[in-house]
Write a structure and sequence with these properties.
The complex is a heterodimer.
Chain A lengths: L1 H14 L3 E5 L8 H6 L4 E3 L4 H13 L3 E7 L8 H9 L6 E5 L17 H6 L5 E3 L4 H13 L4 E4 L21 E4 L5 E5 L3 H12 L3 E3 L2 E3 L3 H9 L3 E9 L4 H10 L6 E6 L10 H7 L4 H17 L1
Parallel strand pairs in A: 1-2, 1-3, 3-4, 4-6, 5-6, 8-9, 8-11, 11-12
Antiparallel strand pairs in A: 5-10, 7-9
Chain B lengths: L6 H15 L4 H5 L2 H11 L14 E4 L5 H11 L4 H5 L29 H15 L5 E6 L6 H12 L5 E7 L2 E2 L2 E2 H4 L5 H7 L3 E6 L3 H12 L7 E6 L22 H15 L1
Parallel strand pairs in B: 1-2, 2-3, 3-7, 6-7
Antiparallel strand pairs in B: 4-5
Helix pairs in contact in B: 1-4, 1-11, 3-10, 6-7
The chains are: A alpha/beta, B alpha/beta.
Chain lengths: 305, 270
């Protein structure tokens, strides 16, 4: 997924000289190719994220197309106010990429783990929140983001879980993409790193699986019609179960087509221990076995009733 | 018609707005009147017929709570109209109590402090990359300099060699709750800018000849160093009972005080 990201950046900058990449001294090795091919469009803004976002806003006001790279713990969370006031209020075309989202930095602890970034941005007007699940979806997300004339946050989580799609899907803004068929009257909706796990579970339980490349906007019409054909919905995300995809799905269907929704995500807690990514996922109950233990009985209940 | 940006007349507009809207921040607007008068009257390049002219110089009011002073200039330019002044803060009106980028002539949304300078750095960087010759003037408050992003922006501006950026400090010595020395002492501000590789001049912020001479001097130095003008100002300047009285950060006018201030300003412009 990171290779796809690098390739998308190089292509965007080569095609459009208004594109500039700003990084807060992050992205070691990731930008080697970009720096080689487009050195004049690369700005290391130093370890100074607040200023970096203000500078990006100024560049965008003057007609540039900034892409701001940071770890998702910092971009958007540390710079939320700059995103709100300097960028979103003026609807400036700035793309923010938050890398290492979720529990990727399992060994670095709380400062680098981020499962509140989506929740922070969902209340800010004018910004799209995208969360691609694999390299193909990322490529499609990037080209959609570049075509928009408004702010975008692209969340990039665990990047080496392998492909979900066989090629770049065609995306419609705000719509879910079906990634697996199933006959059960329950829908599995997942985003980012959790789509792979959703596919595994969906195959076991015979449940259709959807990827959510967008968290915001989220097409309420599509969700309502899905809900209308279903008895229940399960959402999966490597993000807080409060304020993320699950919450967005609930909000979208609650007025028109309420059905029971099981939200799988991070609970009201920080990581307590150190270890591998797999360990962190187990600690938060997001590994496949833990998720299965919650989802299988829920799906079973709504299959039977 | 040529605009004079006469300070007493600008202050009168501010006073009328504040009275119409029962607004605060009078002292914060009065300290920057001569600075804005010089910038709009003598230094900035803009198209009077088009506030959004892409070739304009930018004035970033990072200390957004001084915005009534900028509104007074925009009113003189005809970018705002009399209704904007008379209906300040009335329901459905368009001018807010802090700088707002949706207003023609206002470049940034500020008031939460430490934002505007970075946006100004971005505008200066854009001009520098395009070699457009455009300048960016960023007006910051001395109290605002408490904010961390100001220092990030200073580092960045020097590193990017933005000699088309001028940071103008409204050094009135006060912030909301006291003097700058009481709240968070700034020490020698000029020395701090110099240590960040800025060219710095300090000037009486109410002496228009001195301000203009300093701006012209700094702008003549095409040496890759960003510029800083530390303007020593008086909070509440121009109205006797407001000068250096920090209560006028938040105090509101009553009919008697309004009449007295109006008399003083009309005396000053006569």
């Amino acid at each position: 997924m990171r290779a796809a990201f690098s390739a998308a950046l190089v292509e965007a900058a080569s095609r459009d000289e208004r594109v500039v990449l700003l990084t807060g001294d992050h992205g070691y090795a990731l930008f080697d190719e970009f720096r080689k091919r487009c050195p004049d469009q690369y700005i290391n803004a130093g370890i100074a994220e607040q200023n970096m976002v203000g500078v990006a806003a100024g560049l965008a006001k003057a007609g540039f197309r900034p892409i701001v790279y940071g770890l998702s713990a910092f971009v958007p969370v540390r710079v939320l106010e700059q995103i709100k006031i300097d960028v979103c209020y003026e609807k400036l075309p700035v793309i923010f990429t938050g890398d290492g989202a979720g529990l990727v930095y399992s060994t670095l602890g709380t400062s680098h783990q981020s499962f509140e970034d989506i929740a922070c941005l969902r209340g800010v007007p004018h910004i799209d929140i995208m969360s691609p699940c694999d390299a193909h979806e990322l490529t499609a997300c990037m080209s959609t983001a570049l075509a928009l004339e408004s702010p975008v946050y692209m969340r990039m989580g665990k990047a080496d879980l392998g492909a979900v799609h066989v090629q770049a899907p065609s995306l419609v803004r705000g719509e879910l993409v079906r990634v697996q068929e199933g006959n059960a009257p329950v829908q599995l909706i997942a985003t980012g790193s959790m789509v792979k796990a959703a596919c595994a579970l969906g195959a076991e339980l015979g449940v259709p699986v959807w990827s959510a490349p967008w968290i915001k906007p989220l097409d309420a019409g599509q969700l309502s019609s899905l809900a209308a054909q279903s008895r229940a919905i399960v959402t999966l995300e490597e993000h807080s179960a409060a304020g993320g995809l699950g919450a967005a799905v609930l909000e979208a269907i609650s007025e028109t087509t309420p059905v029971p929704v099981l939200r799988i995500g991070v609970g009201e807690r920080f990581s307590e221990t150190c270890g591998s990514y797999a360990h962190a996922m187990r600690e938060h109950g997001l590994d496949l076995a833990s998720v299965r233990a919650r989802v299988a009985p829920f799906v079973g209940k709504w299959k039977m009733s | 018609m040529r605009h004079s940006f006469d300070p007493a007349s600008l202050r009168k507009t501010v006073l009328e707005m504040a009275y119409a809207g029962n607004a605060v921040h009078l002292g914060c607007a009065f300290s920057i009147i001569e600075l804005l008068s010089c910038l709009y009257g003598r230094h900035m390049r803009y198209d009077k017929a088009n506030a959004a002219d892409p070739a304009r110089d930018h004035l970033v009011l990072s200390k957004g709570h001084g915005v009534m002073a900028q509104y007074a200039c925009l009113y003189e330019l005809g970018w705002l109209d009399r209704t904007d002044i008379d209906r300040y803060f009335h329901d459905g009106s368009r001018l807010k109590g802090l700088s707002d980028a949706h207003v023609p002539g206002c470049e940034v949304t500020s008031g939460t402090l430490g934002h505007g300078l970075s946006v100004g750095v971005g505008l200066a960087l854009a001009a520098s990359r395009r070699k457009s010759g455009q300048k960016c003037y960023a007006l910051v408050g001395d109290g605002e300099i408490n904010e961390g992003p100001i220092w990030e922006a200073m580092l960045f501006a020097a590193h990017a060699k933005l000699d088309n950026l001028m940071v103008i400090v409204d050094a009135n010595g006060f912030q909301a709750m006291g003097t700058t020395d009481e709240v968070m002492q700034l020490g020698d501000l000029g020395a701090k800018f110099a240590a960040f590789d800025f060219d710095v001049l300090t000037v009486d912020g109410h002496d228009r000849e001195a301000i203009s001479a300093a701006i012209t001097d700094l702008e003549g130095r095409h040496n890759g160093r960003p510029k800083a003008l530390v303007a020593k100002t008086v909070k509440g300047k121009g109205v006797s009972y407001m000068e250096n009285v920090n209560a006028w950060h938040y105090s509101r006018l009553n009919p008697e005080l309004y009449a007295q201030a109006l008399r003083e300003l009309e005396g000053a412009s006569a």
